Amino acid sequence: QVQLVESGGGLVQAGGSLRLSCAASGLTFRWYDMAWFRQAPGKEREFVVYISTSGSFTYYEDSVKGRFTVSRDNAKNTVYLQMNSLKAEDTGVYYCAADLNRGPSLRVGAEEYDYWGQGTQVTVSS
């Protein structure tokens, strides 16, 4: 049974930092492309960042470029999201997602990912 468990969310002031983690189990982690999505109240889930199986390729949504950094540790079956210079508009529930790699293919649509975590709340106060 595949499980993705996010942690590290919380309440932070604007300009602050948080580091999210997503621990995976029940799958061969190094075979899976990973992504982070977020969902603000009353809005649709939106793409934040993608990381390839080896971590050699990443792709960020424009509003987080230069502020967020994604990484993964395949030995620990974990993907991370370092979030700096947080803004009020970064508030939302953050989800990690996994999809079996089928060749070089960037995927930014939520419907393209097979497995999801339960989410972790990030609240940025202004």
Structure description:
With 126 residues, this protein is mostly beta strands. The protein is built from no helices and eleven strands. The strands form two sheets. Strands 2, 4, 5, 6, 9, 10 and 11 form a seven-stranded mixed beta sheet that branches.
What percentage of residues falls in helices of 4 or more residues? Answer: under 10%
Model regions low in confidence, pLDDT < 50 over at least 5 residues? none
* N-end to C-end Cα span: 40 Å
What structural class do you assign from the helix and strand content? mainly beta
Q: How many strands in all?
A: 11
The DSSP helix count reads: 0
Q: Indicate the radius of gyration in whole angstroms.
A: 14 Å
How are the elements arranged and paired?
Layout: E1 3-7, E2 10-13, E3 18-25, E4 32-39, E5 46-51, E6 58-60, E7 68-73, E8 78-83, E9 92-100, E10 115-116, E11 120-125
Parallel strand pairs: 2-11
Antiparallel strand pairs: 1-3, 3-8, 4-5, 4-9, 5-6, 7-8, 9-10, 9-11
Quick summary:
By secondary structure, this protein is an all-beta fold. The protein contains no helices and 11 strands. The model has no long low-confidence stretch (mean pLDDT 96).
Descriptive labels:
126 residues; mainly beta; 7-stranded mixed beta sheet; 4-stranded antiparallel beta sheet; globular
